[in-house]
Each structure stands twice: as C-alpha cells, then as structure tokens.
Amino acid sequence: MNNNPRKKEIISKAARLFKKRGYSAVTMRDIADSLNIKAASLYNHINSKQEILATIIIEIAEAFTSGMVEVQTPQLTTQEKLQKIIELHIDLTVKNPEAMACLNNDWMHLEEKLPYFVKMREDYEENFRAILKKGIAQGEIGSRDIEIMLFSMLSTLRTLYIWYTKKDGVSAVSLKNDLPVTLLKGIIK
C-alpha cells in the first residue's frame, strides 16, 4: 500500500464499512462521513471506490501468495507446510479481519483486477492441493479425498475472521497453538 497516511486511513475506514455493510451498500459519501470530511475531498487521495476495494483485496491476496511461496520450501514436511499455511491465515486474519471480509465477500465486485485476483486464488488453491497430494503420496498424511480436505481447511481458514472477531479471550497465540492441531489431527483422542 502507498505510504500516504491519509490514503491508508481512507482505505482502513472503507474496509471496516465494507465488512459491516458490504461493498455494494457503501457509498463514497459514507466513507467520507466516517472520516468527517466531504466526499469530494476523498478524490484528492483516491480515484474511486473500486480503487479502494482493489487495494484492500489485492494487497491481502498478494500476502497469501507470498506466504504460499515461502511455505513451498522442499526442506519442510507436509505437516510443517500445512501448519505454516494455517499460521499464515491466522496472522493475516488477526492483523486485518476487515480485509479478510472484503477478500471473501466482495472479490466478485473487482473490475479491472478481477482476472489477476482469480488467478492468484486459483494458484493458491492448486499449490495447497499439490501439498496435500504430495503428503498423501509420501505417506505423511492420511489418504483421504483431497478436495474434501482442501474444502474443510479452507472453509475454516477463510471464515476465521467472522468467528475470531466475536470471541473475546481467544488470543492469537492460543489460536496458533490449537487450530493447527485441530485441523491437522482432529478432535478424537
């Protein structure tokens, strides 16, 4: 993101509004009102509501892409890679639940950047799938339906922002300790 502090503030406020009401329901006037400025003043820092959405979503999607690249080092076992993916989701969710909400709920409103985002998302999922396939082939994880494993893990991780922001008393540390174990080993003793 740009180093302009006012632009960062605008994007941050907009992300909160998008999370609360959805991209389509938020106007530039709503964003300006939340900042106690005139809507016309927003255009000194940004070009459009679409630019704000694209900034929010592309920034976090690129963080996931970078994290996935780091996870794919050959020295790591499948379990270590999966643990790091889970930790990546936790870190990004805890750091910016509003961006996670936009990523999950408003990505389809991207215009110019939509193909770029969809490609990143597909590549991320394919890399995740490849880790699971390799883990099964090497006997590191149980031989189960890969699509069900992928769906189960990603469904939990992608919606973590909904649950985490409502749970007082659950620390990021506790989440990083318990969620990987729960997702990777289950709950049966």
UniProtKB/TrEMBL annotation:
A Pfam family that the UniProt record links to this protein: TetR_N
Name under which the protein is recorded: TetR family transcriptional regulator
Domain HTH tetR-type: 4-64
Annotated keywords: DNA-binding
PANTHER family: ACREF/ENVCD OPERON REPRESSOR-RELATED (PTHR43479), ACREF_ENVCD OPERON REPRESSOR-RELATED (PTHR43479:SF11)
Domain of life, source organism: Bacteria
DNA-binding region: 27-46
SUPFAM superfamilies named in the record: Homeodomain-like, Tetracyclin repressor-like, C-terminal domain
GO molecular function annotations of the record: DNA binding
